[in-house]
Amino acid sequence: MTKKLRWKRILLKLSGEALGGKGQFGFDITAIEYIAGEIKEIHKLGSEVAIVIGGGNFIRGEKLSHIGIDRATADYMGMLGTMINALALQSILEKLGNFTRVMNAISATEVSEPFIRRRAIRHLEKGRIVIFAGGTGSPYFSTDTAAALRASEVNAEIILKATNVDGVYEKDPKINKKANLLKEVHPLEIVKRKLRVMDLTAVTLAMENKIPVIVFDVFKKGNLKRLILGEKIGSEIKDK
Asked: How does residue 237 score in pLDDT terms, banded at 50, 70 and 90?
């Protein structure tokens, strides 16, 4: 008997730091294999999985701009970092027996397909895991914004933002151990409280297209699967 899924088509937002193993530089192969295994589990259930991946384990365009590199150039460098991560994740997913496609917002035809909306949707319908690299393809936009954009374009029902904390806290839980976890967050609260969970462009785009966002800890084994099966985990950003 097939288990009922809370959502059929999801957009998983993975930070580059997740592939570095909770914030480390470069790759942590154990972390990549773990995340790939979690993705495989939900794919086996029948989920259509699209992934937007960051590049922060290699490079952050915003930080580079602070040391003298032109901001647009720095952002393009960051996009190249997302491509490296996408290819690494693709390789591990395929070793686990999944069919995948990397689709890129910037041209790199030797290693990826160009992003074409209808083709991306068709890949998902065919049961392929689609990894979106290159952010939005334009500087000044974060990969969180790319996640909201791609989710809207492929008609994803939910954005699942994978982090290494339980969800959205009223204050940084690493600094304030007594900070409260917010189970539900209105987009306006993110602005008022200055919550550092997603940039405002990403939140606004997701809300305008009526796509809720759930922030959760991907490093708690089984969390992703439990979310897909309907368990309340993490924090949900939505218009109440």
From this structure: very high
Contact 105, 133 (CB under 8 A): yes
- Of 50, 47, 74, whose CA–CA distance to 63 is shortest? 74
Read off the pTM. 0.93
- Is 121 within a domain? yes
Asked if the structure places residue 4 within a domain, the reply is no
- Tell me, what DSSP letter sits at residue 62? H
CA torsion 33→34→36→38, rounded to 10°? 160
3 domain-assigned: no
Q: Is residue 87 part of a domain?
A: yes
190 forms beta bridges with none
- 136-188: pLDDT as tens digits: 999 999 999 999 999 999 999 999 999 988 899 888 777 777 888 999 998 88
Host domain of residue 204: 9-237
Q: What is the largest CA-CA distance in the chain?
A: 58
Give the CATH number of the domain where residue 98 resides. 3.40.1160.10
Residue 201 backbone phi and psi in degrees, to 5: -60, -45
